Amino acid sequence: MDYHVKDLSLAEKGVLRIEWAEKEMPVLRQIRKRFEKEKPLKGVKIAACLHVTTETANLMITLKAGGADVYLTASNPLSTQDDVAAALVKEFDIPVFAIHGEDRDTYYQHLYAVLDKEPNITMDDGGDLISTLHKEKQNLLDNVFGGTEETTTGVIRFKAMEKDGVLKFPVIAVNDAYTKHLFDNRYGTGQSTIDGILRATNRLLAGSVFVIAGYGWCGRGVAMRAAGMGAEVIVTEVDPLKALEARMDGFRVMPMIEAAKIGDFFVTVTGNINVIDKHHFEVMKDGAIVANSGHFDVEINIKALEELSVSQRDIRENVREYRLPDGRNIYLLAEGRLVNLAAAEGHPASVMDMSFANQALSAEYIYKNHDSLKPKVYKVPDELDFEVARLKLNAMGIQIDQLTEEQKEYLSSWEHGT
């Protein structure tokens, strides 16, 4: 089997961790049970560019149970868990091309490796797989039925491709499923971002000023958790509606240049470039801690910080100190990459359970319907979103009411008045 991982001897540890995650992924277990019987993906080649974690491993195992040939590479050089990669190769016969800390050249070699398997379906987390396919592997496009995308960042990229008329196959925006973005982005990113910051720094949040750039679902989640740990939360935004919502939720709102002067912790979750820039670093307090929880390492202008500094050193694991000419120190976490995955373990399994259930069902949907789908970005069909929610409630032992025929008629009629 063709693969490239750090060390197969790590597999035993990886198997145990995959099993531990599976215990909190009941939705995916229910889907896997059906997949094992029906084999809805039999003969389909799936190339996945996702964070190589225990939760992703359970998705790969589920897709393989459905009959698919699965090939996995990492969507971030610092998010790969080497023991999980080894376990997938050695114990589950799933080819993986990912090594924690790999350089940029190796990262793209791994992308090419899974694309060279001539996939029928792609799974992306950030959009690198589909972008590379369109730019450098166009000869393989005819093999592709469609793809899925896990993140806001990737969906933005593919909608831009659709607008420019260059997207060559349908993409389902898994990120936009209600059971994904509500739970994954708010509860998952909220908890795991704080987890990553605490593991990296061991600093107390209570009594600190915690600045969050962006008040989308991820920003809402981080704000909720930071406030819950006693921090004073400040939100910076460019969207007046989101800024208003943040204020009505009880948080201070101001421009980043003002927040930069008083913040102790900074987290970017916007999906945009240079959200924290040179002029912000110039006014930050001594000891300011800066982290990113958006997909790419572009939200913090690291080059500007390097140019401003007179010296740099790694003072702790995942903490780099930048000393400025006036003696102030600014601390960058996890190289400006996803702090929740680079410095911690990413989202809890129970959150990723719903995200990856959407991935599995969307792959099945693409295979069954690709002949009628156009090269555009689609939302996850409501019936799939509802099915994930139903399976989750079933796993939690929760029952809900059903509309009566009378109620259905009332809701569908315009004739009933006051």
UniProtKB/TrEMBL annotation:
<dbReference type="GO" id="GO:0004013">
    <property type="term" value="F:adenosylhomocysteinase activity"/>
</dbReference>
<dbReference type="GO" id="GO:0006730">
    <property type="term" value="P:one-carbon metabolic process"/>
</dbReference>
<keyword id="KW-0378">Hydrolase</keyword>
<protein>
    <recommendedName>
        <fullName>Adenosylhomocysteinase</fullName>
        <ecNumber>3.13.2.1</ecNumber>
    </recommendedName>
</protein>
<feature type="binding site">
    <location>
        <position position="347"/>
    </location>
    <ligand>
        <name>NAD(+)</name>
    </ligand>
</feature>
<feature type="domain" description="S-adenosyl-L-homocysteine hydrolase NAD binding">
    <location>
        <begin position="185"/>
        <end position="346"/>
    </location>
</feature>
<dbReference type="InterPro" id="IPR036291">
    <property type="entry name" value="NAD(P)-bd_dom_sf"/>
</dbReference>
<feature type="binding site">
    <location>
        <position position="185"/>
    </location>
    <ligand>
        <name>NAD(+)</name>
    </ligand>
</feature>
<feature type="binding site">
    <location>
        <begin position="151"/>
        <end position="153"/>
    </location>
    <ligand>
        <name>NAD(+)</name>
    </ligand>
</feature>
<feature type="binding site">
    <location>
        <position position="53"/>
    </location>
    <ligand>
        <name>substrate</name>
    </ligand>
</feature>
<comment type="function">
    <text>May play a key role in the regulation of the intracellular concentration of adenosylhomocysteine.</text>
</comment>
<dbReference type="InterPro" id="IPR042172">
    <property type="entry name" value="Adenosylhomocyst_ase-like_sf"/>
</dbReference>
<feature type="binding site">
    <location>
        <position position="184"/>
    </location>
    <ligand>
        <name>substrate</name>
    </ligand>
</feature>
<keyword id="KW-0520">NAD</keyword>
<keyword id="KW-0963">Cytoplasm</keyword>
<keyword id="KW-0554">One-carbon metabolism</keyword>
<comment type="pathway">
    <text>Amino-acid biosynthesis; L-homocysteine biosynthesis; L-homocysteine from S-adenosyl-L-homocysteine: step 1/1.</text>
</comment>
<dbReference type="Pfam" id="PF05221">
    <property type="entry name" value="AdoHcyase"/>
</dbReference>
<dbReference type="InterPro" id="IPR020082">
    <property type="entry name" value="S-Ado-L-homoCys_hydrolase_CS"/>
</dbReference>
<feature type="binding site">
    <location>
        <begin position="293"/>
        <end position="295"/>
    </location>
    <ligand>
        <name>NAD(+)</name>
    </ligand>
</feature>
<feature type="binding site">
    <location>
        <begin position="214"/>
        <end position="219"/>
    </location>
    <ligand>
        <name>NAD(+)</name>
    </ligand>
</feature>
<dbReference type="GO" id="GO:0033353">
    <property type="term" value="P:S-adenosylmethionine cycle"/>
</dbReference>
<feature type="binding site">
    <location>
        <position position="180"/>
    </location>
    <ligand>
        <name>substrate</name>
    </ligand>
</feature>
<feature type="binding site">
    <location>
        <position position="237"/>
    </location>
    <ligand>
        <name>NAD(+)</name>
    </ligand>
</feature>
<feature type="binding site">
    <location>
        <position position="150"/>
    </location>
    <ligand>
        <name>substrate</name>
    </ligand>
</feature>
<dbReference type="GO" id="GO:0005829">
    <property type="term" value="C:cytosol"/>
</dbReference>
<feature type="binding site">
    <location>
        <position position="340"/>
    </location>
    <ligand>
        <name>NAD(+)</name>
    </ligand>
</feature>
<feature type="binding site">
    <location>
        <begin position="216"/>
        <end position="221"/>
    </location>
    <ligand>
        <name>NAD(+)</name>
    </ligand>
</feature>
<dbReference type="InterPro" id="IPR015878">
    <property type="entry name" value="Ado_hCys_hydrolase_NAD-bd"/>
</dbReference>
<feature type="binding site">
    <location>
        <position position="272"/>
    </location>
    <ligand>
        <name>NAD(+)</name>
    </ligand>
</feature>
<feature type="binding site">
    <location>
        <position position="125"/>
    </location>
    <ligand>
        <name>substrate</name>
    </ligand>
</feature>
<comment type="similarity">
    <text>Belongs to the adenosylhomocysteinase family.</text>
</comment>
<dbReference type="InterPro" id="IPR000043">
    <property type="entry name" value="Adenosylhomocysteinase-like"/>
</dbReference>
<dbReference type="GO" id="GO:0071269">
    <property type="term" value="P:L-homocysteine biosynthetic process"/>
</dbReference>
<dbReference type="Pfam" id="PF00670">
    <property type="entry name" value="AdoHcyase_NAD"/>
</dbReference>
